[in-house]
């Protein structure tokens, strides 16, 4: 039977998002407060489905990811997230969590975004918290920063939040909200050049970049201009401007990591081969722009009408890994619909 969400037992689905203006660097690790605003597109592929059931007789949380019991850091992150929800609900009960990702985990394909967005919505409902989308976004942020954006459909802006006097105020000030982009009909073509887990977690890589990279502050400053120009470009449905800003913002983010000590390098030879083919597409008159996250995989923004041609070119450039076409997807929600 289809899952029925209600108090005590709730199932949620969420999709990953890809940032066009990146989140890189925290100002508060505990609260997951970023140093910069970021802006993303939620995808319509790679959903994560997560069921949370309260377990009155259990003395610890049971967590499975893809049917396999979670352990180590993955388990710790889910349990601390549930602790937050329990504290807020004033209910100490343990839970059974079953999560199914369709996206390769830890490969820079935003599995933690869909994962914690689905967990936030399902856990809040199971523990009887009545949260609006903004509150879901703040809560999801505590699990993984980028998850704050997957609460929303389409384009979303995650506010770093203003400087504040207290941690409670800071928590309130950092959440995502939808950004309308009327008239834009985009696709993101994803070239998976390596679906394996990354060697350095994005959490560790961000920390090292902020602490040691002389390029971090200049990038964070320029990112503010990228964000305001991106909002204007989305509002006028200017895909070429959206793509140019996204590509320069991502390359700049990777430059900050390359300048960290020791360097963090997610870009692989196949990444550069795909970037060359994106340049060639542009020379051939196709509006195509690349972005890369904490991994070697490349996401190419284009008009939806050009997506098949772009996908064909990327398949030729990076034989081996799958190439998928994604469009703007829905926000996180409880099942059934
Ligand atoms: C982003 N990334 O904006 C950036 C660009 C990767 C590169 O958000 O430590 O998994 O859990 O808050 O959200 C990946 O970082 O990090 C990420 P945590 P998260 O999408």
UniProtKB/TrEMBL annotation:
Top-rank lineage group of the source organism: Bacteria
GO MF, one example: diphosphomevalonate decarboxylase activity
Residues of the signal peptide: none
GO cellular component, one term: cytosol
Principal EC category: lyase
Pfam families according to UniProt: MDD_C, MVD-like_N
InterPro entries with a match to the protein in the record: GHMP_kinase_C_sf (IPR036554), Mev_decarb (IPR005935), Mev_diP_decarb (IPR029765), MVD-like_N (IPR053859), Mvd1_C (IPR041431), Ribosomal_Su5_D2-typ_SF (IPR020568), Ribsml_uS5_D2-typ_fold_subgr (IPR014721)
Biological processes per GO annotation: isopentenyl diphosphate biosynthetic process, mevalonate pathway
Mvd1 C-terminal domain ranges (all copies): 189-316
EC number: 4.1.1.33
Domain Diphosphomevalonate decarboxylase-like N-terminal: 14-162
Keywords associated with the record: ATP-binding, Lipid biosynthesis, Lipid metabolism, Lyase, Nucleotide-binding
UniProt cross-references to SUPFAM superfamilies, sorted A to Z: GHMP Kinase, C-terminal domain, Ribosomal protein S5 domain 2-like
Keyword Nucleotide-binding: yes
Protein family per UniProt: Belongs to the diphosphomevalonate decarboxylase family.
Protein name: diphosphomevalonate decarboxylase
Gene name, Swiss-Prot/TrEMBL: mvaD
């Amino acid at each position: 039977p289809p899952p029925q969400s209600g108090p005590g037992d709730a199932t949620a689905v969420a999709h990953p998002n890809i940032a066009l203006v990146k989140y890189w660097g925290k100002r508060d690790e505990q609260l997951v407060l970023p140093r910069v605003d970021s802006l993303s597109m939620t995808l319509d592929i790679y959903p994560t489905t997560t069921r949370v059931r309260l377990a009155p007789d259990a003395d610890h949380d049971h967590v499975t990811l893809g049917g396999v019991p979670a352990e180590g850091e993955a388990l710790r992150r889910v349990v601390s997230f549930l602790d937050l929800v329990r504290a807020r609900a004033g209910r100490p009960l343990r839970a059974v969590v079953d999560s199914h990702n369709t996206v390769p985990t830890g490969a820079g394909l935003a599995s933690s975004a869909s994962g914690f967005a689905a967990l936030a919505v399902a856990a809040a409902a199971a523990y009887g918290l009545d949260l609006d989308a903004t509150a879901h976004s703040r809560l999801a942020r505590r699990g993984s920063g980028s998850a704050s954006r997957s609460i929303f459909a389409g384009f979303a802006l995650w506010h770093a939040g203003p400087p504040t006097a207290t941690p409670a105020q800071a928590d309130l000030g950092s959440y995502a909200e939808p950004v309308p982009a009327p008239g834009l009909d985009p696709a993101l073509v994803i070239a998976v050049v390596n679906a394996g887990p990354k060697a350095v977690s994005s959490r560790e890589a961000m920390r090292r970049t902020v602490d040691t990279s002389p390029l971090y502050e200049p990038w964070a400053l320029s990112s503010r201009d990228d964000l305001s120009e991106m909002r204007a470009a989305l509002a006028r449905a200017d895909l070429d401007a959206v793509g140019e800003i996204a590509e320069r913002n991502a390359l700049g983010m990777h430059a900050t990591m390359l300048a960290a000590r020791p360097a963090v390098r997610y870009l692989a030879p196949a990444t550069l081969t795909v970037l060359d083919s994106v340049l060639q597409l542009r020379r051939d008159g196709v509006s195509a722009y690349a972005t890369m996250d904490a991994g070697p995989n490349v996401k190419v923004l284009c008009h939806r009408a050009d997506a098949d041609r772009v996908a064909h070119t990327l398949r030729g450039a990076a034989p081996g890994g799958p190439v998928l076409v994604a469009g703007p997807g829905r926000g996180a929600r409880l099942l059934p619909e």
